[in-house]
Each structure stands twice: as structure tokens, then as C-alpha cells.
Amino acid sequence: MARHLGQAARLSAALLNRLAMLVVALFAVVLAMALLPGNGVRSLLGRDATEEQVRAHERELGLDRPVVARFWEWLSGMLRGDFGTTLRGESVGDLLAAKAPNSLVLTGAALLVTIVVATALAVWWTSGDRPVFGRIASVATVAVIALPEFVVATIAILVFALALDMLPAVTVQNSTGAPRDASMYVLPVVALALPQIGWNARVFVAAIREARAVPYIRAAELDGVGETALFLRYIAPRALPTMIASLATTVGMLVGGAVVVESLFNFPGFGAVVAGSVGTRDVNVVAAVVACTGLVILLMLLVADAVRAWANARTR
After folding, report:
1. End-to-end CA distance of the chain
2. CA–CA distance, 124 with 104 (Å, rounded to integer)
3. Residues near 71 by beta carbon (within 8 Å), at least 6 away in sequence
4. What would you report as the CA-atom Rg of the chain, rounded to the nearest whole angstrom?
5. Phi-psi region of 179 (alpha: psi -120 to 50; beta: other; left: phi over 0)
6. Per-position pLDDT tens, the chain of length 316
7. Is the pTM of this model over 0.85?
8. Contact 262/269 with Cβ under 8 angstroms?
9. How far apart are CA 34 and CA 302, in angstroms?
10. C-alpha dihedral, 160 to 161 to 164 to 167, nearest 10°
11. How far is Cα 34 from Cα 31, in angstroms, rounded to an integer?
12. Cα–Cα–Cα angle for 114, 119, 121, rounded to 5 degrees
């Protein structure tokens, strides 16, 4: 009982610590946006707007107040589910809700592909004696990790869209605002997933090898326990926390990469919205996306902590 209470206390402390870090990161985003050159309100009103009109619109939106006061008001509203308004006076929540389903499908598909391919690659890499495959996989994973998403996207467009004419390079929307055809997801998913497959495969391999080196798991392997049973019963519980923590980082990378990839493929997600919001200094939109992404990562890290606590209790 005392052990379970101690684990719960540690998880609670980790949650509070990460929430505090998320708040600091959000404030850093808001501050950085405030320090960027240019004036979003003037861009919105146009060159012909007078200084009085610009100042009046800033007062209407509350942009004339100190950054700290604006951040506190926005943070308080976020806790109530209100992400504020854009410079145009539109609800940020409504704006993102209209684009979120497309982006969620895209990033969710990329995450699923990453999990399946990286796990399969890591298990095959670490089971049996395959030195040639290991050398090829090592070089290949380093190569794809080094490629940014926009480079992968550009290569994919050149090869599969222009040279082979197999897949569309531009996303066309249907009447609901979603991609008109499932094939329009393929290249964006590949562009997002490929670098993350390389990264996670290497992390998974390291976690699996570390688990295999544990004495009791090594003993079970020498006793003739089958590879499948060995992995599911012994290796996976010890490797899973590290794998989940890596995937938590991957979620953030996928969301960040989606901003570029969606712009390249004209994909109707919130990536293009965020890119435009940075250009117009629309801080509420950018902060809302950072907050949502951070909460998802925080949740996955919390799951990783819970799995780690479960794995430690199981191995005692």
C-alpha cells in the first residue's frame, strides 16, 4: 500500500513539474511573438490604415496591455476551454476545430505508421544474428533522421508525383473541406513519418538491447524461451517506457513537421493556419496549438511514467 502511494505521489509530482514547464514554454512563445518585428494589426488593416485606427484596434483586442497581463488572461481562459480570438475577432477554438480533424487524421496516420514500422524494424534488427541487415539499417536510419520533413516531401513529390505520376502532389478539398481522395494522404504521411521511423527505430533498438542484457531476461533466453514469448513477457515490459517516451517526443515533432508538410501539399489542416498566424503575429492561434500539443505530449509522458512504474513493480 505504501509503495503504491509513493508511486502515485511521484507521478503527481512529475505531472505538476511538467505542467509548470508547459506554462513556462507557453509564456516563452507569447513573449517571442511579442518581440518579433512587424505589426499584425497593421497587416490586417492594410497600408492605408492610420495610426489611430491601428491603436484603436489594438485597444479593442487588448494588445495595448503588458505581455504578462495578456498571457495571464489567455491562460485563465484556456483553463475554461476558451482560447481567445484571432486578430480578425474570430474564435480560435472554432478556427482550429474546423481544421483539426484533417490534421488529426494526418498526424495520427503518420504516428501509426511510425509505431508499426519502427517496432517491426527494431524487433527484426535485435533478434537473431543479422550483421548485414544491422549495418544497412544503421546507415539508413541515420540518413532519414538527417533529412528534414520538407526535404523528404520534396523528394517524394519529385519521384512519386512528377516522375512516376503515381500519387497527387497537391491536395484537393471536397465539399466538407477534407481531402477529396485517400491517396492525397499518402505522400504527406510518408514525409512526416519517415524521419520519425528512423529516430524511433534506433531508440527502440537501444531499449530492447538494454532489456535483453538484464540478467534474468538473459537467463530466460538461455533457458530456451521462444523469441515471441521472450519479447512479450520479458523484454517489452522493460523497453516499453522508453519507447513510449520516445513516441511522446515524436508527437510534438509530427505536429511541428505538419506545419511545413501541409503547406507543401496544400493540405487543409491547421498547419497552414499556424504558418499564417506566425506571419501575422496572431499569438493566440500559435499559443493554442502549442498548448494542445504540449498537453498531448504531457499525457503521453505521464503514460510512460505509469508504464515504467508498472514495469518496475512487475519485475520486483
Report:
1. 15
2. 30
3. 26, 27, 30
4. 23
5. beta
6. 555 556 566 667 767 777 787 788 778 877 776 666 656 666 666 666 677 776 776 777 777 677 788 888 888 888 887 888 877 777 888 888 888 888 889 999 999 999 999 999 998 888 777 788 888 888 999 888 888 888 999 999 999 988 988 988 888 888 777 888 888 899 999 999 999 999 999 999 999 988 888 888 888 877 777 777 888 888 888 888 888 888 888 887 888 788 788 888 888 887 777 777 777 777 788 888 878 777 777 777 777 777 767 666 665 5
7. no
8. yes
9. 32
10. 80
11. 5
12. 100
Residues 6+ apart with CB under 8 A from 262: 103, 106, 188, 268, 269, 270, 271, 272
Q: What is the rounded distance in angstroms from the CA atom of residue 256 to the CA atom of residue 263? A: 12
Amino acid (one-letter) located at 188 = P
C-alpha cell at 132: 548485414
Positions of E strands within the chain? none
CA atoms of 181 and 184, how far apart (whole Å): 6
For residue 287, the tally of other CB atoms under 10 A from its CB is 24
Q: Cell 489567455 appears where?
A: 74
